[in-house]
Automatic annotation (TrEMBL):
<feature type="transmembrane region" description="Helical">
    <location>
        <begin position="75"/>
        <end position="94"/>
    </location>
</feature>
<dbReference type="GO" id="GO:0009425">
    <property type="term" value="C:bacterial-type flagellum basal body"/>
</dbReference>
<keyword id="KW-0813">Transport</keyword>
<keyword id="KW-0472">Membrane</keyword>
<dbReference type="GO" id="GO:0044781">
    <property type="term" value="P:bacterial-type flagellum organization"/>
</dbReference>
<comment type="similarity">
    <text>Belongs to the FliP/MopC/SpaP family.</text>
</comment>
<feature type="transmembrane region" description="Helical">
    <location>
        <begin position="182"/>
        <end position="211"/>
    </location>
</feature>
<keyword id="KW-0966">Cell projection</keyword>
<keyword id="KW-0975">Bacterial flagellum</keyword>
<dbReference type="InterPro" id="IPR005838">
    <property type="entry name" value="T3SS_IM_P"/>
</dbReference>
<protein>
    <recommendedName>
        <fullName>Flagellar biosynthetic protein FliP</fullName>
    </recommendedName>
</protein>
<comment type="function">
    <text>Plays a role in the flagellum-specific transport system.</text>
</comment>
<keyword id="KW-1006">Bacterial flagellum protein export</keyword>
<keyword id="KW-1005">Bacterial flagellum biogenesis</keyword>
<dbReference type="Pfam" id="PF00813">
    <property type="entry name" value="FliP"/>
</dbReference>
<dbReference type="GO" id="GO:0005886">
    <property type="term" value="C:plasma membrane"/>
</dbReference>
<dbReference type="InterPro" id="IPR005837">
    <property type="entry name" value="FliP"/>
</dbReference>
Length: 246
């Protein structure tokens, strides 16, 4: 409802303005729909890149590969779990954005409609608060050397305050930092299951069962080990605890 109200309040001045309808009104309806869908896809991709989703989905994919269970759990289950874990990790950031950006914007828009004046808190102010909260989260989970890399590539001197770092530097640095962290966690997850594969292969070779695929025997052993140690709880705890709280 909040997003719908924002869209209505931002679109109403354009519709009630001067006789110039704008560039989008010159386009056909299918083209406008295509642009809207493209904007939504881009927004979704950006949301994935600036949240905890990347690390979570990669680590869960490593777990499935290490267990050698092919497509179990299915992709839909992993995506659903990743989305809800992302919402859990990002809850403080989203709550701060709702409290300091969305709510003041809605209240300012209502006051402006009642008094027929300019709002004292507009979209630019809301975007500044939103980007600041996202920057705080990303900087808390980004390695210093990754930030230094993109400062060097862009030939931009680092600001005196880390929060003043532009998004064009923070976002790619955050992504590669998340990828590195996810691969380190994936490596640690692989080690115990790799040992099981080596032990099973050695036993099968000692028994002379050369034609027996080791994965047929090692997969049940992996599943048994994963169940005994309550693997999903351990993975979830490790993932949530790996993010810095700011």
């Amino acid at each position: 409802m909040d997003l719908l109200f924002i869209a209505q309040t931002t679109a109403q001045p354009a519709m009630e303005g001067s006789s110039d309808p704008g560039i989008l009104s010159d386009l056909t309806a299918p083209m406008q729909i295509a642009l809207l869908l493209g904007a939504l896809s881009f927004a979704t991709a950006m949301l994935v890149c600036v949240t905890a989703f990347t690390r979570i989905i990669i680590v869960l994919s490593f777990v499935r590969r290490a267990l050698s269970t092919q497509e179990i759990p299915p992709n839909q289950v992993l995506l659903g779990l990743s989305i809800f874990l992302t919402m859990f990790v990002m809850a403080p950031t989203f709550e701060a954005i709702h409290r300091d950006a969305i709510t003041p914007l809605l209240e300012a828009s209502e006051r402006a409609q009642e008094t027929e004046s300019e709002p004292d808190f507009d979209l630019d102010d809301a975007w500044a608060v939103t980007s600041g909260e996202l920057k705080t989260f990303m900087l808390g989970n980004t390695r210093t050397e990754d930030l230094a890399l993109f400062f060097e590539l862009s030939e931009t001197p680092p600001p005196s305050h880390r929060v003043d770092t532009p998004l064009k530097i923070i976002v790619p640095a955050f992504i590669i930092s998340e990828l590195k962290t996810a691969f380190i966690m994936g490596f640690c997850i692989y080690i115990p299951f790799l040992l099981i594969d080596l032990v099973v292969s050695t036993i099968l070779m000692a028994l002379g069962m050369m034609m027996m695929p080791p994965v047929v025997v090692s997969t049940p052993c992996k599943l048994l080990l994963f169940i005994l140690v309550d693997g999903w709880q351990l993975i979830t705890r490790a993932l949530v605890s790996s993010f810095a709280t700011v």
